[in-house]
Amino acid sequence: MSLVICFSGKKGAIIAGDTREILFGGDDDAVSALEEELYSGAITTEGDLQERARSLGVTIVIRDGREKVSRRGDILIGEVGERERDRVRKRRVYATAGSYALAEVHNSRIISAERRAGAGFVVLGNEMTKRIANQCIRDYWKAGTLDDAVRVIVMAMETASRVTPTVSKQYSLLQTRGRGDLLALLEGEK
Q1: What ranges in the chain are assigned the alpha helix state H?
Q2: What are the extents of the domains in the chain?
Q3: For each of the chain's 190 residues, which pLDDT tens digit applies?
Q4: Could you give the C-alpha distances from 76 to 83, 89, 125, 158, 176, in angstroms and in order?
């Protein structure tokens, strides 16, 4: 899991997602131990991550280039995934002006979704990245404009990339001022 942040407001929606993907190999218990340290914030640099992986006998591959955000018309979509032993759990956020939805995905199909109207931020990621993003939102969001929401999101993405190797320095940022039909999109993906 990395970091996806979105904002939905009356006049539009914004979404950002980093591009990092980390693949782990080795003994399941060692991988779990490494992931726990990584996602708790105990490992703060790529060098520390590489060194700790070696000490546990875990192989890792770090790639920057996985797009986690996209657009379908006036609906912005962000997705994060995490491995749990033998399966991948995915969470998605869909956002458009005035509403957003959160969904659990299995085998590319939505298995549950919750739609909400109104304005707000949504943060998807591991515990560390969510903590960082939510702190930036608390510290810098003052119920401003869409441009203010962009600034808060950019600050959260950049802060997270400095303090955890789970977030890349590069990220994608998308915006829409339109109102897409979330219900129709969600029904089409079930």
Answers
A1: 28-40, 46-56, 127-140, 146-163, 182-188
A2: 3-19+66-188, 25-60
A3: 689 999 999 999 999 999 999 999 999 999 999 999 998 889 999 999 999 999 999 999 999 999 999 999 999 999 998 666 566 678 999 999 999 999 988 777 778 888 888 889 999 998 889 999 999 999 999 888 999 999 999 999 999 999 999 999 999 999 999 999 988 888 877 6
A4: 24, 20, 17, 21, 8
Termini Cα distance of the chain:
23
Residues present in the chain in total: 190
Retrieve residue 39's tokens.
Answer: 């996602």
Would you identify the CATH topology of the domain 3-19+66-188?
Glutamine Phosphoribosylpyrophosphate, subunit 1, domain 1 (3.60.20)
Model pTM above 0.85? yes
141 token code pair: 């969001």
